[in-house]
Amino acid sequence: MGIFDKKGTGSTGDVGRAAPQPSYIETKSGLDCDCYIAEGITVEGKITGNKSVGIDGNFKGELDISSKVVVGETGEIKGNITAEDVEISGKVVGNIIADNFMEAKPTGQIIGDIEASRLVIEDGAIFEGNITMSKKKKAKTEAASAITMGDVSEASEEETTY
């Protein structure tokens, strides 16, 4: 009988057993996200990354996400949001830059400026601020780099009559 045997049966305990599978938390508001701040939780600071973020709690600071930010009905953000896509069902006091799509749901409240390529503000949503509709940042950068100084000189020489 080896020193790791259980009662001489030749068993080595849990060595052959599969590790338990991770369990995922179902969010209160059904948010589908990689990082989650639950209702009753307050976070202050800066969050950056390339995974989606869902907020049902309180966040004060800056979100710089290259994926999606979803603020659930109980979520509150005091700070600026920069993301690929933004969906607001809760309250945001701060500016929002959505490189692709921004949506304010009927329960959403936004106090601040919005810059987005595409924008939907559903009936019932509250919005106080300015809106700038723009192309994605990548498209802006490509267009800007395509203009040469020769193009600028030629454009300034042309006359425009109104």
TrEMBL record:
InterPro entries for this protein: BacA/B
A Pfam family recorded for this sequence: Bactofilin
Region (Disordered): 1-21
Superkingdom in the source lineage: Bacteria
Family named by the database record: Belongs to the bactofilin family.
PANTHER family noted in UniProt: HYPOTHETICAL CYTOSOLIC PROTEIN (PTHR35024), POLYMER-FORMING CYTOSKELETAL PROTEIN (PTHR35024:SF4)
Protein name as it appears in the record: Polymer-forming cytoskeletal protein
Source species of the chain: Candidatus Zymogenus saltonus
Lineage: Bacteria, Deltaproteobacteria, Candidatus Zymogenia, Candidatus Zymogeniales, Candidatus Zymogenaceae
